[in-house]
Amino acid sequence: MEPFVTLTGVAAPLLRANIDTDLIIPKQFLKTLVRSGLGQHLFSEVRYDAEGRERPDFILNQAPYRAASILLAGPNFGCGSSREHAPWALKDFGIRAVLAPSFADIFYTNCFANGLLPVTLPMAAIETLATVAGPLTVDLPAQQVHGGGHSFPFELEPTRKAVLLEGLDEIKRTEANLADIAAFEARRRQTAPWVEIRVP
Amino acid sequence: MTARTLYDKIWDEHLVATRADGASLLYIDRHLVHEVTSPQAFEGLREAGRPLRRPNTILSVADHNVPTLDREKGIHDETCRLQVEALEANVKAYGVPYLPLLDDRQGIVHVVGPEQGFTLPGTTIVCGDSHTSTHGAFGALAFGIGTSEVEHVMATQTLPQRKSKNLRVRFEGSLPRNLGAKDLALALIGRIGTAGGTGHVMEFSGPAIRALSMEGRMTLCNMSIEGGARSGLVAPDETTFAYLQDRPLAPRDAMWEAALAHWRRLVSDESATFDTEVTLNVASLAPQVTWGTSPQWVTDIAGRVPDPETAASADDRLSMLRALEYMDLRPGTPIEAIDVQAVFIGSCTNGRIEDLREAAVVARGRRVAPGVRVLVVPGSGLVKRQAEAEGLDRIFLEAGFEWRQPGCSMCLGMNDDRLDEGVRCASTSNRNFEGRQGRGSRTHLVSPGMAAAAAVTGHFTDVRRLMEA
Question: Contact B444/B425 with Cβ under 8 angstroms?
């Protein structure tokens, strides 16, 4: 996975609350067998009209936000469906960081598996950053977002920070504990044997 | 020993190790797999040359993309068919148990798992689907995961997890007649909001929960995610055990007795403390109907569409204005004055036998209102068979409702079952998001009885007026 260290780029403000994953990537695009190519369908139903033409009033259809790599959003971003197609679509579009006052749990976890950084900041900070004309910088090592003379620190769990900074493979990390897993399984077969599936 | 909640107990029992980076590795007993969120996980295993650790802990079935008409003729939509075929090829290659499309046991993963006895109390269950919370009805720790986590579970049978906080919801009083678990779920989400349970596991308790059937408990736990909680939990009791006994994959004989002894201890200790407590008195609850584009925007059948000018904040006001514009509703409109053009009865929320019975009682001897299209989609082939044995299909057909084959169907419209732009639907599903049932469609979430009442009257109607007249 591509590491995330420091990102400087255009930040698109989409300050609605409760942006759900159905809105981020609608169901008709979930029929794919691969992780790539979803960027063109990101926010499809608000980005394009029924005939597939761009809606000029949608933020990602406006310069300079077509090239946005940061998204500013309202609270409870990514709620609803567990579809990992949401972070895949954001990343394929070019978004590497989403800044919001809060995130839904499954979406938040899915971000880290894809090198996408969800940054939790108070709504007032998001609103301030939305007024900055130039690019924003998200500095992961320093846990700071700055731009337009403003600077805001953010919290992040150290384990998750390391995953992004080093672009680590979660499965590989867990494989270091394979002996523990085998020992647990042997124990569980004794303590809870009914959990073993009987093949009918 | 310190007092523990049910969630604490299941967590402790599944903690494998603490990884070098400090993450807790939680053992996963059961994994449900469907066609939409699994192809990239299988592909990841293949690319890395990793084996699938325990194929027999998985149960797989196609549900999202499957046709609900003329299934025997195959899937005509090519992208849908390719995804189902990919699942079939993957489960074959990795030796994963699979319920084929034309098998009577096929259905929505969250209906099938409990039905087969795959879902057991005290286990950990995951699926690449947010409504995995459904299985918490059995006292299982069950939660939705992303595709990368699906791959992680396939490879290691574990997940790195952060412990959630404990939230207890107590439902006091007894539920009035003709109200059900869906009304409880919507009323709760209306109270706490769609982010109210974020970071928490929700345990449901109180007399109204003890009185609920397993179907009702599943409906409630299913909607936990709509309140922001990845998991809902109901402590198992005699209702749970009676449901599970003799299910195909449930333990038998001496093993059943051993399991039962363990399951009876799966309760939160009396002195356990919860990080958050919510209490709702349900004795005076009325049937719930959502009016907006988020499940938290709900009122009861006697209510009216709210006025954004009364919103608590400027942000809420903007959200409400946007929702009312999308839903084409004006503030102050009585809920009962809202006409519908479509009704959907089904989904992992309300596609079980009891839900169909609740709708059939209302439909019996009545006719669909002019201009309304009604789809009834059983949650599984076994639900369909049971409903037909009880004659529910005939009641629906005589009322002018369509009787379909099992699947996710119009809850999200990945197959052909979609609403056209501007169509307003009374739906027993779980999400009223913009575009959820079809681009520009307008969804109102209700119980199966309320959906049937809307079907026969053409507008939202208090089901109690039809049933208790």
Answer: yes
